[in-house]
Amino acid sequence: MIWNKQYECMEREELLKLQGERVKSMVKRVYDSVPFYRKKLEEMGIEPGDINTIDDLQKLPFTTKQDLRDNYPFGLFTVPQSDIVRLHASSGTTGKSTVVGYTHNDIQMWSEVVARSLTMAGVTKSDIIQVAYGYGLFTGGLGLHYGAEKVGASVIPISGGNTKKQLQLMEDFGSTVIACTPSYAAYLGEALVEEKIDRNKIKLRAGVFGAEPWTEEMRSQIEHLLGIKAYDIYGLSEIIGPGVSMECHCQNGMHIFEDHFIPEIINPDTGVVLPYGELGELVFTPATKEAMPLIRYRTRDLTRLHAEPCECGRTLVRMEKCVGRSDDMLIIRGVNVFPSQVESVLLEMSETKPHYLLVVDRENNLDILEIQVEIEEQFFSDEIKELEGLRKRIKANIASLLGISATIRLVEPGTIERSMGKAQRVIDKRKLK
Ligand code: DLL
What is the pTM of this model? Predict the structure, then answer.
């Protein structure tokens, strides 16, 4: 068990002081060693000596994904290549991937925050954890791996995919915890039934799911399918990887490890910092990173922060489940729609399975949305009349909750492509035109 009470239960005043000291020393480091940051700060007339307390953070400029691309591959590193012990890269759908580097100390810090995260899900050295996030350039697999080893759990580094083998090892090795994307967890749950595996032989009790947005409705479905308690873990490669924040047993938002990653919520249009409780874009300053600390990195993830104390005893702020990324937001006939909103509507209905796809297109200059949704086998074999009733109910719920009209296509179980990693929930054909 790794519960670092010194930092996780720190008095707010003390934590803010610590954050101030950490930002101050980090700004001096990047100013001295990263030409990009020196230039940017000089242009704004800021010197490292101007940054003394955490309140001064707001004087500093933002860093964006484009800045990482412009400095591809190693331009933002603060240390010589000989001090880098690991490189990861995020795939990125457009342009060059973004590269991140880690020193030995960075890997230690990362392992600790993931270990703290797993501790929140009750993971101890007695657990057997199946790490089914992808290993490789993606941070999920190795991130969870090192954290689980630090806790002392027995790690099965199976990586993503190979579903039959996942189930076989789950049964034979007696995995008690599974770590993967929520979409893959839903698929594993389904495969368990298809393979007719005796549920009594499965010892799973908890899941550590993240890397993509997922709703409370998805959580209920996964918990039901796998017979476990499902926890949300958040992170991004630019900041460290998984383990930036995690839900404790109270499941009242994800605690951010603020001693390392300093969060802010901003208005994405104006860059103005918003108070706790307001919805906006999450910004992080990973102040203790050695190889690649960033100043006010804009994540594009939309959420809210809450600072009220949590029953678990941790004083760290909590972030709500992400609504989605600002770049995943669809604008359909002028209405803003997040795939996660569609997911909540669909999965609230017992007839639907957690597999769906949004196809957006344009016809006669008008946006059209088709939602393909898989339904449970027993309902699919029902009479046409009943299927039609279900289709109409989904359409009405989408219209009343999201304010858009969509074509609903009910598809047979197994039709929508399953994802072993991050699910693709949207095909926007308008972009291809
Ligand atoms: O997805 C790191 C990770 C691995 C997190 C395993 C959790 C578990 P990237 O590939 O850089 O890193 O993608 C980061 O994924 O900005 C969010 O948009 C999204 N994301 C990550 N975790 C969550 C989550 C990893 N729990 C991007 N809920 C982030 C919603 C998430 N979105």
Answer: 0.96
